[in-house]
Amino acid sequence: MQKFVLLGLLGFCSLEDIKCKKLTVIYILMFGISGVLLHLVSPVCSIYSILCGMFLGIVLLLIGFVTRGGVGMGDGILLVVTGVYLGGYGNLELFMGGILLAALWSLGMLIFKRKNRKDEIAFVPFLLFSYLTMLIRGA
Fold first, then answer.
1. Given this model, what pLDDT does residue 54 score?
2. CA-to-CA separations, 28 to 59, 92, 127, in angstroms, rounded
């Protein structure tokens, strides 16, 4: 059940990130509350793993604050919530897969001169594809 809820969250946020280049925090927080409630009914990982997963998002929020928006705050909040669903290792895997996919996409855009170094890209779709890869692998 939790896999499908997280897939819905990432799908919804991907569409919003592509269209608007920003995320609506209230929807993400509602999914976060749902994740906590689902975890109470059917725990998937330990509370320590969840806290470690949430910590990754908090670090990203701090980086966004220090860089004054160099990293989107919505991305950090989203990773806090995905940490509730995936735990520490799973959230780190999601994030690293998203970074790798975004880097490959950006490199392609630079090579073919479709974008320059200063252009922003939507990051959440790469998290969605990273999560789909995790689901296919059975992680």
1. 95
2. 17, 19, 14
- 77, two tokens: 């909040």
Q: What is the DSSP letter of 73?
A: H
Structure tokens at 105: 């996409």
Residue 60 burial class via C-beta count within 10 angstroms: exposed 0-12, middle 13-18, buried 19 and up:
buried
Angle between helices 73-111 and 124-137 in degrees, nearest 10: 90
Contact 64, 112 (CB under 8 A): no
Cα distances (angstroms) measured from residue 54 to each of 44, 60, 82, 92: 15, 10, 7, 10
- Global pTM reads 0.91
pLDDT tens digits for 39-71?
999 888 899 999 999 999 999 999 988 988 777
pLDDT tens sequence across 72-130: 889 999 999 999 999 999 999 999 999 999 999 999 999 888 887 778 888 999 999 99
Contacts of 48 (CB under 8 A, 6+ apart): 88
> Are residues 80 and 61 in contact, defined by beta-carbon separation less than 8 angstroms?
yes
Encoded tokens for 27: 């929807």
